[in-house]
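Journal club prep, shared notes

We agreed each person brings one worked example of a sequence with its structure written out as tokens. Mine is Carbamoyltransferase. I'm keeping it raw so we can talk through how to read the token line rather than staring at a rendered picture. Sequence first:
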Amino acid sequence: MYILAYKDGHDPAACLMKDGEIVAAVEEERFSRVKHAPSQFPKESIAFCLRQAGITQEEVDYVVYARLTPLRTFAAVMLYYMRRPPRTILEARYALANLKLQVLGTLGQFRGRAGYQRIYPLFPKLPKVHTSFDHHLCHAASAYLLSPFEESLIITWDGKGEATSLSIGIGQGAGLSIKERRGIFDSLGLFYSAATKYLAFTPNDGEYKVMGLAPYGQRGVDVSDLIAPDERVGYRVNSDFVLYPLRGVEQNFERRFGPAAVRDMPISKEHQNFAWALQNALEQVGLSVAKMAQKKYPSKHLCLAGGVALNVKLNKVLRESGLFDDIFVQPAAGDNGLVLGAAALLYTKLTHKRPAPLTNLYLGPSYSDDEVAAVLREEGIVFHKSSDVIGETATLIKKGNVVAWFQGRMEFGPRSLGARSVLAHPGLAGMRDRINEKIKFREEFRPFCPSILAEHANELLGRAAPSPFMVLSFEATPVAKRLVPAVVHVDNTVRPQTVARDDSRYRALLERFYQETGVPALLNTSLNIRGEPIVENPHHVVEFFRKTHIDAIVVGDSIALRTDQSSQFSQTLNRGTLVTEY
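Then the structure, token by token:
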């Protein structure tokens, strides 16, 4: 049985489930090259899923839309405002603007022009859309139904989906139910996004930058009148600082905390302190919600999804709280991951069984060595086919080179996990600054993550636990600070990918690098530059090679070194001498 799930809007994506197992999943941004691909229909994503499985449109059994249709969304939003009428001028302005959008969306549906309806002319031989599911129900299903737990408490939190910004649910066997919801005016995600904008980062994209900036600040800014824990309902938040699309919210932040930060300008100590206060408040509020939920719906496990679940510092607090024996964070926790939940929900509804747990995110496109070589020749790149890709790459990195590593099927979700990665030696002084400045072209305060041989995790991580998807954070041990300083953040934390024993090429590279250096980890960051999606195909790798100061690209069995390219190619980057002897 094949189930195709898709969504449009923010972070459009598609996935294909075969007999309860996700066999393909990809985000539209990887094809369109527009980050988050706002308002784009996932045409290429759907086409890839069918192509990857080798099936025709007619062979798909069910199609599911991973959010409510416009008419049902309008009903959910209207019901919310009836139950929780606006209490301030800002809330009223937001509600009116939101309802206008819902009316326009509903009219579009009646006219056959709603976003989800674009699938019919583009893929006319697919079955008619079987059903659609509530946004936070999809989040909850992606977290619980794809987890390894037989029972669990479930918390989903984000900006908003339909009229919900936070849900609390329980899972038992193949059953899942949402017990409580918080609405738009109480949104933790929107509050964090509004603060993100105040700090001159882009909402719905730059929140992780705020999380990375926060450790550079210190206690001194009080936000307790805006957001604070509450034992009875989990938390309270001032909606005058939540509804960030409205100009009045920006003015409220400036009146309360002073002038907003300016994009691409040095970040003041005051703004660093504000980031610290914001992150600390989120952690305390998140913990309060978990305590309240655990008290009402006891469980040994916790499953998380929604954009807020990508905040690894919050996840660290929850994991170390002692409230739960184990937690599972759905790694594509943002809106792209809704397709996973929708497919899981429909499969469970049809079969009364749970789908297979999510243990693999290498669900995207791949390219053969012949395809890679043809692209490199077409692009005029000087390269050689290696008979020992693992050994040559390990030696390059050992010598201090930064390598673009493009292997196998692309990852689904926001993290590069060794298929579309930039790799470097985590123990070399200055490596973090070099990559931020010369390769990623991003803010200097941004930290990097390590990929660690799983059997060595206890040496580098305090209270170590499996972390295959980079969604958890740990204290760095003294060994880590000495051995891999380039991946230890200023607050002495590490966000790792632990790589278990398998037959993957990436695991083999980690093992070889450890043999040569005694360092059981690599610095691993996404294969993209600031503002662009992660690369998808070999053409994108070549473009990355030309735009950045990367020392080498390793694409399948093909290796290209910058020093082997034409002088004109090198001079366009005003590059200095490279270490490429090996």
